[in-house]
Amino acid sequence: MKKRTGLLALLLTLALTLAACGGEKYEAQAINEATDVCVICKMAVKDDQYATQIVTKDGQSLKFDDIGCLNTWKTENGTDTIGAAFVRDYNSKQWLRYEKAYYVYDSSIQTPMAYGIVSFEKEEDAQSFIDEQGAGKLMTADDLANHSWEVNRDMMNMDGHGHSDSSGDAGMDGHMSDGENGHSAEEEGHDDGGQAS
């Protein structure tokens, strides 16, 4: 009887270990400001609260300077190859799973490519941001699936930054609002044919 109980315990432990290791674990990679560029707009990706990334099922890390660029990639490439998508908490800059974050959208929120969406780990932090700004709509990842993904063209025209049909000026600690943190092709060593000024 003791042998049987010991064998059952060993098999149960083995089964639990295999179950824990069975699923793929995807982790966000650190941003390297010296080399990382947005897969969509080719602007430098800053190590800030606007950075997002997709880790593909084969382990590639695709980095984006704005959640709108991440959405553009998903629209163009589908979601079948995505292992996990990550955004950052606006306050702590910690990586969060895209589907677990809370979002605030308002066209007046200045983000690198003027999509006007910021992300938070906690719903109450997102609501506090809305209360402080006096504007914004609280959203989830499910809500983003039906979002219009419009660009604030007024912001786009302020600095002349952009890619294809979208762009913007970042504020609220965004990285296109000042020369020190701006996405400049010359500063970043990119020649993107007029995509940056």
UniProtKB/TrEMBL annotation:
InterPro entries: N2O_reductase_NosL
UniProt feature, compositional bias: Basic and acidic residues: 175-197
Classification via PANTHER family: HTH-TYPE TRANSCRIPTIONAL REPRESSOR YCNK (PTHR41247:SF1)
Organism domain of life: Bacteria
Protein name (database record): Nitrous oxide reductase accessory protein NosL
A matching Pfam family: NosL
Signal sequence bounds: 1-22
Region Disordered, residue ranges: 157-197
Record keywords: Signal
Acetylation is among the record's keywords: no
Organism listed in the record: Paenibacillus arenilitoris
